[in-house]
Write a structure and sequence with these properties.
eight-stranded mixed β-sheet, six-stranded antiparallel β-sheet
Length: 439
């Protein structure tokens, strides 16, 4: 069995966190591949190493000394090394990096060094081999990952039963230059490594015990989600939940590798297990709601026209108007001869008059109405399809609290129910729904 582990910035923040990681890795012989982020914050007013490196680059661009900032980066890693009694020659590494900075270094190479230094130290601390990301994670010229080449290279480097530490966040372009992934890219590196090695589990270790059923800033002590499908993860992420982005986990989802989100500071907690599907009895009553998430500041554009339901090409014409004005459509609740399009207000506002004119010209509707200040809340659960009365329970719970529902829609896969309410009722709606379905 093989488990690939990725540790985020807070898990790599100081020597104590390194010791926690060592204990986690040693507790399971299947944990042989470790992907690490740059050191994160140790406390609320602390700095993330990657942010400091971005700041160093900005100073270099403007010809301003970055000595004090650079010293903070060097001292953080040297203090971790010294406290752990390691022998890595960080002085030589930092001197070589400084030389590159003096003679012109790319921003992407400079900001990638946080992960590089983290991996050097962690490899020595665990007694694992260090595999630089530039030796296996390869990009095409367009910036996309060359999965076939990358997967083959990592398999060859790791071997049959090898143990290794890999820096996240960066790889190599065809011209030999370092390229970074988007922020949070270490999650992608971990998923790619797990997919490349056909891991049995991809463990993503962070500072929370899995995904929570609701925003803890709104609901006090929400329960963690024990199990979720990748489709539910996508729904929650799209609807506003602070979970791993879909693109982060795509490589492991593609190979149907389970994802386990765990807490470095509470390793005994099982966290959230994410898989393509779970085989459960249809009549299972417990926990048919997986999570509740939402976002504010949408607008609903409602178009009415007699006979629209049977007309050919009308829907295409409407969608093209929004596409031509670069306004994304998030949801499309419909009725007979009525179509509503839910769009982000900030995207609609600059183009609203143009869109109205285009719709009148292309569709000739009977009426167009725009409703602003709308929040959309999603109730997500793979088992809702087997539970009658869910929509009625939503109406009843919100009605009892005097919350007016401006829109309600259910997806054809019965995976989620969307509720539109006024922005001012956003937080209360989430609390009411959580109390109604979870407590």
């Amino acid at each position: 069995m093989l488990k690939v582990l990725k540790f985020g910035g807070t898990s790599m923040a100081d020597a104590d966190q390194y010791r926690k990681i060592r204990d986690i890795v040693r507790s399971d012989p299947a944990r042989r591949i470790v992907v690490v982020s740059a050191a994160g914050k140790r406390f609320s007013d602390d700095n993330k190493i990657t942010d400091l490196l971005y700041l160093c680059y900005a100073h270099l661009q403007y010809g301003v000394s970055c000595d004090s900032i650079y010293a903070m980066v060097r001292e953080r890693y040297c203090s971790i090394r010294d406290e752990l009694g390691l022998q890595t020659d960080l002085e030589g590494e930092f001197a070589a990096l400084r030389e590159k900075m003096e003679h012109g270094i790319s921003r992407e190479e400079l900001v990638s060094r946080g992960e590089y230094f983290s991996a050097l130290l962690m490899a020595e601390f665990l007694g694992f081999r260090f595999i630089d990301a530039t030796s296996w994670l390869f990009f095409h010229y367009d910036g996309t990952v060359d999965q076939e080449k990358s997967y083959a290279a990592l398999c060859a480097l790791v071997g049959e039963d090898g143990c290794a530490v890999i820096p996240g966040f960066y790889g190599l372009m065809p011209d030999g230059k370092i390229r970074t992934l988007t922020r949070g890219g270490s999650d992608i590196t971990g998923a790619l490594a797990a997919a490349a090695l056909n891991a049995d589990v991809y463990e993503n270790w962070t500072d929370v015990s899995g995904i929570l059923m609701a925003d803890p800033r709104i609901v006090e002590n929400p329960k963690p989600i024990e199990r979720a499908t990748y489709s539910e993860l996508r729904q929650l992420s799209y609807s506003g939940a602070q979970v791993l982005h879909e693109m982060t986990v795509f490589p492991v989802r593609e190979k149907n590798i389970p994802l386990n989100i765990r807490n470095t500071n509470d390793p005994s907690h099982p966290g959230t297990l994410v898989s393509e599907e779970f085989h459960e009895p249809r009549n299972m009553q417990k926990g048919f709601i997986t999570g509740i998430a939402g976002k504010r500041d949408f607008s609903i554009v409602t178009i009415s026209k007699k006979g629209m339901a049977g007309a050919v090409g009308t829907l295409r014409a409407i969608v093209e108007v929004f596409e031509n004005n670069t306004v994304p459509i998030c949801y499309t609740p419909t009725g007979i001869d009525v179509l509503s399009l839910v769009v982000p207000t900030e995207k609609l506002a600059p183009h609203q008059y143009s869109i109205m004119d285009d719709l009148r010209s292309e569709v000739r509707p009977d009426s167009i109405k725009v409703t602003d200040n709308i929040a959309i809340i999603a109730v997500v659960g793979r088992k809702m399809a087997y539970r009658a009365g869910t929509s009625g329970k939503i109406f009843a719970a919100l009605g009892e609290q005097g919350i007016n529902i401006r829109m309600i829609s259910q997806g054809p896969d019965e995976l989620n129910i969307l509720v539109g309410v006024d922005n001012k009722d956003y937080a209360e709606t989430i609390r009411v729904l959580y109390n109604a379905f979870v407590k």
